[in-house]
Amino acid sequence: MIRHGQTDANRDQIIAGRLEAQLTSEGRAAAARLADWPWPGEIALFA
Question: A GO molecular function for this record (predicted)?
Answer without folding.
Answer: catalytic activity
